[in-house]
Specification:
GAF-like_dom_sf, five-stranded antiparallel sheet, about 45% helix, alpha+beta, 8 strands, elongated, three-stranded antiparallel sheet
């Protein structure tokens, strides 16, 4: 059988399947399903992720169902937590393991959109014969990582189909829709985690994470999304002992931080409806300092 060459980025997954996992691509594969108690335990632990993802999953399914896609949410270990599918696809979903409690980690299932997305920590698309296992040659999957309020990988949003249809004409649009939906879920989680803080952005979103930062009344960083942590070189988890954000930006000379400073000031001004004094308090700097920065950055008010 002729196999497709994996798209850029999937070759690493094939190497892992061959070398690290010692998986035989022709071997029969059966879905591993968690027991009901195991699934309840994991669902309780990830209830906030499920709660915020479900409305977005329903909306996403309404957009992709005509192409034969099922929408799934998986945790950081590749366990499916929830599913949105059409009635006509229920039998196929059971056959292929597109259901809650199914384990789609790369080590067991080989190259697949959920497991490989978790390994690569980036959006991935796996088309038919690009799967490692030959039995998955009719499957198509597109997945995007989901991050929690502390910037940690929380799971995967996935659309998958067993129909064997050619989706290449729509692949770009489908991927962008997936990434946008993942950002919306991340932002909901972030805003709920920091309900009393000022949320600002450090610029345009990249891939599946939006660069958001939560600031207290003194302008100190209380939290940051995955994208913000990458841009600012902040670690995962709790952010402690950081100076006020504007002071931190002042200490950096790189152009990227100048751009970040512009976005921070604009976000603060937008949040306070253009009130300079209120924006300065939000940023933890004086009114005169903010005026000086606005002039130095040539910001139009």
């Amino acid at each position: 059988m002729n196999r497709m060459t994996p798209q850029p980025g999937l070759s690493d997954s094939w190497d892992r399947c061959s070398t690290n996992y010692n998986l035989d691509p022709a071997e029969r594969w059966e879905t591993r399903l968690l027991s009901a108690p195991e699934l309840r335990f994991i669902s309780n632990r990830t209830r906030l992720l499920i709660q915020h993802a479900l409305p977005e999953m329903e909306r996403l399914h309404s957009l992709v169902m005509a192409l034969g896609f099922t929408v799934m949410l998986a945790d950081a270990n590749g366990v499916v937590l929830s599913r949105q599918t059409s009635r006509d696809d229920l039998t196929g979903c059971r056959r292929w393991g597109f259901q809650a409690g199914a384990l789609w980690d790369e080590e067991n299932a080989g190259t697949n959109s959920i497991g490989t997305c978790l390994q690569e920590k980036r959006p991935v698309m796996v088309l038919q014969s690009q799967h490692w296992r030959l039995c998955f040659r009719n499957l198509t999957g597109i997945a995007s990582p989901l991050y929690n309020a502390n910037g940690k990988l929380a799971g995967v949003l996935n659309i998958c189909s067993f129909a064997g249809n050619d989706i290449m004409p729509f692949s770009g649009l489908l991927m962008e829709t997936m990434i946008t939906t993942a950002r919306q879920i991340e932002e909901k989680l972030f805003r709920e985690f920091f309900p009393n803080d000022t949320i600002i952005t450090l610029g345009l979103a990249t891939e599946s994470s939006t660069p958001l930062v939560a600031l207290d009344r003194d302008g100190h960083v209380r939290g940051a999304t995955h994208s913000s942590r990458v841009r600012m070189h902040w670690p995962e988890g709790e952010l402690e002992h950081l100076p006020a954000l504007m002071s931190f930006l002042d200490s950096e000379d790189e152009l990227s931080f100048r751009k970040a400073e512009v976005h921070v000031i604009r976000s603060a001004l937008a949040t306070t409806q253009g009130n300079i004094s209120a924006a300065a308090r939000t940023l933890g700097i004086s009114r005169s300092t903010l005026h000086r920065k606005i002039r130095a950055l040539n910001l139009m008010l």
